[in-house]
Backbone:
């Protein structure tokens, strides 16, 4: 009897170790692991884009429906402050050299700047209707803002004034600054094109037609592979275009209502966040890609920010019945 009992104990222990090992292996097989949820408090409505102050460990969240910018302390994982009184804030950017936050608001077409830990308002730049996405060129001390029926505003970060406008063929959605310092790649869904801008000349030098694919909103650059990655909503698809001539070289299905996309250069991956309650992960390989996983999230959670310096992906989740708005924090695995 004693011998039988000891055998049973050994079997149970072995099974426990095996189950634990399998669970650990399964966790590591998921390319993104949810490690925290940061409540934003009483924040209602749609949440748009985000920016980060890496040195100060602050995450800035455009709470569009709330008319505010939430400030999240990434050391404590708590909201540490809030910029209020904004009119539909959509785009947000951060310039480390001057410790300045830039906020673009669709409702009044303005860009406002806030400086320092106290986030005191420093400048107000009036652009026009539907001020939207922001990209910061730290090396050139320039800030680019998409707005109106087809403009990229070029802002001098030192003097906080608009230098010029770059005309496009429709309202710009996601756009990216090439690391070569010469080009800007812009999604223009109204015209079903990707437009390539000469940054120095301030004009469109190429237009890549997207064919039957429409609603091209998020964009990311896989410059190591010479590719511009574009996510479409109609149909839900991820496409790769050659940075050299705009040739479309690869298509793959992705989640629906995509709004943000990022390249994880360290792991050769692409992250796509979508409003249909999914977060897709693609593996880059020889300039092509394949979908590794489609992770369930929350309805409407379509905006995100991947921060390589922190090795974290932040997903904005709007308030739902019985649940407050929150930032979900993911850690890439492997």
Residues:
């Amino acid at each position: 009897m004693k011998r039988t009992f000891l055998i049973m104990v050994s079997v149970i222990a072995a099974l426990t170790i095996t189950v634990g090992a399998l669970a650990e292996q399964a966790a590591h097989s998921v390319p993104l692991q949810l490690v925290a949820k940061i409540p934003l408090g009483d924040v209602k409505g749609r949440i748009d884009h985000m920016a980060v102050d890496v040195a100060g460990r602050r995450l800035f969240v455009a709470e569009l429906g709330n008319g505010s910018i939430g400030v999240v302390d990434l050391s404590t994982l708590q909201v540490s402050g809030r910029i209020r009184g904004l009119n539909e804030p959509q785009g947000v950017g951060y310039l480390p050299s001057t410790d300045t936050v830039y906020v673009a608001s669709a409702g009044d077409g303005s860009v406002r700047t806030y400086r320092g830990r106290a986030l005191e308002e420093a400048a107000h730049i009036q652009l026009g209707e539907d001020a939207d996405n922001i990209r910061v060129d730290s090396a050139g001390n320039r800030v680019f803002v998409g707005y109106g029926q087809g403009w990229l505003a070029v802002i001098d970060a030192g003097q906080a004034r608009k230098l010029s406008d770059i005309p496009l063929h429709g309202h710009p959605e996601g756009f990216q600054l090439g690391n070569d310092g010469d080009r800007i790649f812009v999604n223009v869904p109204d015209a079903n094109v990707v437009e390539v801008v000469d940054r120095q000349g301030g004009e469109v030098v190429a237009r890549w037609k997207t064919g039957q694919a429409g609603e091209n909103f998020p964009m990311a650059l896989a410059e190591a592979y010479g590719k511009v990655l574009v996510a479409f909503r109609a149909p839900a698809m991820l496409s790769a275009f050659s940075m050299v001539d705009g040739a479309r070289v690869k298509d793959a299905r992705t989640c629906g209502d995509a709004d943000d996309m990022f390249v994880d250069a360290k792991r050769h991956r692409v992250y796509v966040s979508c409003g249909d309650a999914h977060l897709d992960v693609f593996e880059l390989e020889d300039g092509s890609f394949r979908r590794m996983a489609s992770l369930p999230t929350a309805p409407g959670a379509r905006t995100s920010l991947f921060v390589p310096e922190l090795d974290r992906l932040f997903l904005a989740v709007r308030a739902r019945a019985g649940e407050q708005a929150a930032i979900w924090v993911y850690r890439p695995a492997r």
